[in-house]
Amino acid sequence: MVKANLIGVVLLMEVILRFGVDGLSMQYYMMSCPFADPIIKNTVNNALQADPTLAAALVRMHFHDCFIEGCDGSVLIDSTKDNTAEKDSPANLSLRGYEVIDDAKEQLEQQCPGVVSCADIIAMAARDAVFWTGGPYYEIAKGRKDGRRSKIEDTINLPFPTFNASELIRQFGQHGLTAQDMVALSGAHTLGVSRCASFKSRLSNVDPTLDSDFAKTLSKTCSAGDNAEQPFDATRNTFDNFYFYALQRKSGVLFSDQTLYTSPRTRNLVNGYAMNQAMFFLDFQQAMVKMSLLDVKEGNKGEVRGNCRKIN
Ligand code: HEM
């Protein structure tokens, strides 16, 4: 009897894990919008073919979405006359790629109106961008609902590029992410660029953690102004482990990048990922899956927006 009950419980757990009960699941859109995955993938692939730099933008957008109010599409909401939204915060001004999400959303609304959330679109677009640039492919559960709050002041909880390793570990820890998750996720800086404004403070004082030749490269970049772009590594549109090589050479662009190598708490992880790309990919995909589940809104805790820029 006890055994039969136990089997019953295990079977129920299996059903919940696989198909979710008003929750997230891998097959969430299987019946309600079977082409959600390919529609998003094609939209992302077409956008990246036209502009490969958008891959970085989509991955960053997912991070900035998940760290504020959970992965709920709050970063996509436009400001209104009564509300200044997250996207107008200084921390988000260089976010890009909103039109890729809008494009996917429009197609999805035609196929299956009111079904696929904006939060899920961002999570899937980031996943597809990682794969398109040569990174690992990972499956994610779907079923995130869109939030109704997006306030500029909440973005104070994004990490600052001036943070040291301990501050980064603490902040990621507040989201249930380990130091290893944090270093692996920082490896997303294998894609994209930083603007001079985000690192110029490193150039005014002598920063002993910065290679002197690389300091000259950064100064040269900044001679073109605050918005001048510096790639994080030598291959800005390819997902690889070159970012970690750069840290070993004291050529991290942000202070928050270089600190991962300077600090004894995280240096071994940097060395491990520099030596073994497969290990970086594995830890990165696990950490992305974890990040994609931060404070997710399920059921009636959120909505499926008709337009990703506005609450319904
Ligand atoms: C560890 C703490 C982190 C800090 C302090 C940080 C900070 C920054 C800063 C300052 C920039 C440049 C912004 C600009 O100057 O316009 C940037 C770019 C970027 N960040 Fe992070 N970041 C962190 C973690 C992450 C994570 C976890 C991800 C994704 C999983 C990520 C993805 C990106 C990408 C892809 C870019 C390039 C964007 C582009 O080229 O458009 N970052 N980050």
What does this protein look like?
The protein is mainly α and 312 residues long. The chain is built from 13 helices and two strands, in the order αααααααβααβαααα. The chain folds into two domains: 2-158 and 291-301, Peroxidase, domain 1 (Orthogonal Bundle), CATH 1.10.520; 165-290, Peroxidase, domain 2. The chain has helices at residues 2-19, 36-50, 54-67, 98-111, 118-132, 165-173, 179-186, 201-204, 212-222, 242-248, 255-262, 267-275, 277-291, and strands at residues 193-195, 229-231. It has a two-stranded antiparallel sheet. The radius of gyration is 20 Å and the shape is globular. The chain binds protoporphyrin IX containing FE. Protoporphyrin IX containing FE (HEM) binds at residues 56-57, 59-60, 63, 94, 96, 159-161, 163, 168, 185-186, 188-189, 191-195, 197-198, 254, 256. This is Peroxidase.
